[in-house]
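User: Can you predict the 3D structure for this chain?
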Amino acid sequence: MSWSEFMNDTVSRIGALQKEAPDTMAGFNTMGKAAKTNGALPEKTKELIALGIAISTRCDSCIAFHVKSLVRLKTTREEFCEALSMIAYMGGGPSVAFSAKALEAYDEFTGGATGKAV
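Assistant: Here is the predicted structure, written as structure tokens:
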């Protein structure tokens, strides 16, 4: 699976939904902006929490979006893998499988072990 192609397809589908439900999407985007604002917790910590939820709910689209954000926030592979360990611990076998998918996305988006940066 190419995570970059998957992201492009997902963004396209969301764009189609945005045309049909602009108020809903505007509200969602406003909520996301507010949630990600640095406060007592920095944005990176909030994105790691979001990644844990994305993996736990087995949402490939959410995994891709939050991994991209973590790459943008310069999350190291060590930080990323440490978070995946906690996520796997809390979520059991299914979270281990989806943590492996998240690591694959991280490597593709950073040009690391399995792919070239986009």
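The mean pLDDT is 94. Residues 54 and 62 are 5 Å apart (CA to CA).
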